Amino acid sequence: MKPSRGKLPLSIIAIVICIFAFVGVLYTEDTGSLSSAYLLNLTSTCPKQEDPINNSSDSAKVEEKTTTTSAEENDLNDIDEEEKVVFEPNKCNVVKGKWVFNSAAQSLYTDLTCPYLDKQVACVKNGRPDFDYRYWEWQPDECILPRFDPTTALEKLRGKRLMFVGDSLQRGQWQSFVCLVQSVIPAEKKSLRRGRSHSVFKAKEYNATVEFYWAPFLVESNSDLHIIGDPKKRILKVDSVNKHAKYWVGVDILVFNTYVWWMSGLKIKSLWGSFANGEEGFEELDATIAYRMGLKTWANWVDSTIDPNKTRVFFTTMSPTHMRSADWHNKKGIRCYNETRPVLKKGYWGSGSDRRMMNVVSSVVERMKVPVSFINITQISEHRIDGHTSVYTEHQGKVLTDEQKEDPQRYADCIHWCLPGVPDTWNQLFYSYL
What we know:
Residues 50-75 are annotated as: Disordered. The protein is of the alpha/beta class. It contains 14 helices and 19 strands.
């Protein structure tokens, strides 16, 4: 009798293929250059042989996983902690990850211990009753993000000027950074001078400054110092940054942002040439077109003025807003009001971040001669519907009254962030690049 010609089991075939692939790598590569990450990726593609006895129970477990809602169960297939590598800016994709609750996390400051916070972002002082929003930590899938060490940060800034440039979201990142580093500086060795457009924190022992310059559009506008509340009356000079840029010269580390002021939903009145006749000489442009023109003006200034051997340039990507609770399937919600947990679904993206505007930034930056590093906060912040100031903020310079807090549809601020809070994570990312 001839032996039967049954087909080999697929699992055996897969194992044989993996063995040949591994042997092939050994012969074609210098084994000294093989990284552990490469080997992990290679071996992870080889399936484990299934136990036929437990196969049915495993299927049941898989089905159970698909119906759970906790962050831990949704992420069972993530890389194990011991397989993660130390953070390297050009290799780790920080966007891919998850927010993990850590009740043991201790902030380096609070809005009661840091004397430099604006009332606008001091949520606990303003009556916020919950605290969980402070204990969520961002964990990338592929690497371990280093914790913010204020002493190390100050050493890296010794003898240097760091300046944050942009809008009120950028001011929040600046205040976060100041509060993080000031926590290790004695009172007599630090100071803060506030100005209408330019504020300077000094760490005297380190001969270092952490500064903020107000330029919400980066380019000049008639709403820079004397803020015009009505977007219809704002006029931008999209071909000039000169009035602002004179403050940026000689700075060692520049961190720019601009986004939310462009998102009025209206056409933007844009002007070329003389600003004196701005009431008559403007053209109304779509936001993305005006935004591209403004960013090109900024990029041209950077390329023509900055010496990359002396100055490092960063750009903080857009900070998302959370105005539509339907985005995260809370149809009875009122914006971000009363939200106390992040959205845990991986890759969540709401309506508060305009991808077209993000594409404008990337397309302008990739054509620049001077290298610009992105502090990519958008995707990670999309999840944090719980981190906004909501009704625990101020309106027209005064903390909201109890009556105003009961009207979140009108008063809930779902643009700015509580401090300590989400902007501390932005600075943790920034610190990793310093």
